[in-house]
Amino acid sequence: MRQVFDNELEELLDKFTEMGELVNDAIYKAVKSFINHDKVLATEVIEQDQKINDLEKEIDVLCIELIALQQPNTSDLRRIVTTLQASNDLERMGDHAVSICYSTIRVKGNKRSDHIESALNDMGEIIKWMGQEIVKAFTHFDMEHAVDVASRDDEIDYLTHEVKKGAIKRMKNDPDIVWGAIDYVLVSNYIERIGDYVTNIAEEIVYLETGEIRELN
Amino acid sequence: MHQKKMKIENLNLWYGDFQALYAVNLDIYENQVTALIGPSGCGKSTFLKTLNRMNDLVPTARIEGKVEFDGQNVYNPEVDVNELRKKIGMVFQHPNPFPKSIYDNIAYGPRTHGIKDTHQLDEIVERSLRQAAIWDEVKDHLDRNAQSISGGQQQRICIARALAVEPEILLMDEPTSALDPISTAKIEDLVNKLKENYTIVIVTHNMQQASRISDRTAFFLNGYLKESGETRKIFLNPEKEETENYISGRFG
User: Domain residues for B201?
Assistant: First the structure.
């Protein structure tokens, strides 16, 4: 029943791609909303999250049915197990985008720092690229690209550190910025966590291709 | 939503004093694959044979209840059994081609139903072999004895032979249990394709096969139909503990 299995696998990957696009869109808009103090955009992202959660459930059901009804083996089985894991990672990435949006809504009107916001903007650009490329690597079975994508997580970690350092420095000098600075730290942390989930997906792609469980970064 | 093609109501069957089926109720849906599963002696093959009255051939068999096919009880005395078996064809566990050429095997049914025109027979033979996904393998030696080819090919010849008389329903009694995994996969893919045009009821001992190829599953135990429904439901979350135990290999 190769045909049935292949068709359902294709459907599964289509859903995964759709979910990946929604999540990356959410992350991009979340960071943008934070930088631009755009409460409307933030609210939109929060409302869209339900769609992401629904898709994850659909992917779960499909994977479980494929395992139960088609008894996949070897790389077929790895493909389904990794899709289960990766869709869970995507869902958590979406949750962090939502958290960023709550910061957007909260932070409006507080005192800001252009310097830190510019670093956050850079983080947003990098994480957007990582998110898009890891979904591509996943659906194209491209392990090399996945490892490349994950390697950029170092840049995210560095910028997270920079944001924290800058925020602490400013808080020491100007107590009025404390509320805003806490959100800077939080948002940089959310992006940093998203980077970790991208790395998880890269590790899952390595497992998919090689059958080895290997830690990246 | 698929239409009901057959409707079995309160079906009981005895072989002499032994009751083999107890009050079975089951619907068979059009263009779907219905798998009958259960341990040996549970009544699934007996049930399959009631659908086109193959049990008529067993002298001690006695039946009560209704087997409706397109709204008519197949056990009505006025039903022409030959007509019925033309509409409800059957494929057996062991490939059983006639000791004739491949061509004559396929042409056998249409000929007995009065088709004599060679051109028309040629067309039927080709169409049937194509539908059974074996045309490319045998087209250059249709005159070969059908018993001289491999078991997997013989089984597809038997499927082609059943299709040649344009049935509506195909009954399959463990059609792959005598075949190797590659031939089995071919038959399974074929079943999946055939359901576009036919309604299929298949008995299988292979639970994985049932889960892979069927849309609906009926679980028999000791002559009772214990549970039936969508295959995904039966295999992921059955209602009855006995079904769960059988499917997960705890008995049987």
Answer: 32-57+81-247
Interface test with A, best of B176, B183, B184, B188 (most A CBs within 10 A): B188
- Under an 8 A CB cutoff, do A71 and B188 touch? no
Q: Flag whether residue B189 sits within 8 Å of chain A, measured between CB atoms.
A: yes
In terms of CA atoms, which chain B residue is nearest residue A8? B212
Question: Do B61 and B23 form a contact (C-beta atoms < 8 A)?
Answer: no
Name every chain B residue with its beta carbon within 8 A of the beta carbon of A71.
208, 211-212
Q: What average pLDDT score do residues B168-197 get?
A: 92
pLDDT at residue B250 is higher than 90: no
CA gyration radius, chain B: 18
> Per-residue pLDDT tens for A68-81?
999 898 889 999 99
Q: DSSP character for B177?
A: T
Residue B65 lies in a domain: no
| Domain harbouring B158, CATH code | 3.40.50.300
Instruction: Name which of A2, A3, A69 is nearest B231 (Cβ-Cβ).
Output: A69
CA distance readout (Å), A45 to A89, A97, A102, B75, B104: 18, 8, 10, 64, 68
- What are B33-64's pLDDT values in tens digits? 999 999 999 999 999 999 999 999 899 999 99
Given a cut of 90, whether residue A201 has pLDDT beyond it is: yes
Nearest to B208 among A4, A65, A71 (CB): A71
User: What is the C-alpha separation between A29 and B66, in angstroms, rounded?
Assistant: 63
d(CA A130, CA A213): 21
How many Cβ atoms from other residues are within 10 Å of residue B214's Cβ?
28
Q: Which of B93, B85, B111, B87 is nearest to B155 (CA)?
A: B93
Q: Which of B28, B34, B31, B32 is nearest to B5 (CA)?
A: B28
What domains are there in chain A, each with its CATH number?
2-210 (1.20.58.220)
* Number of domains observed in the structure of chain B: 1
Q: Which residue of A has its CA nearest to B207?
A: A69
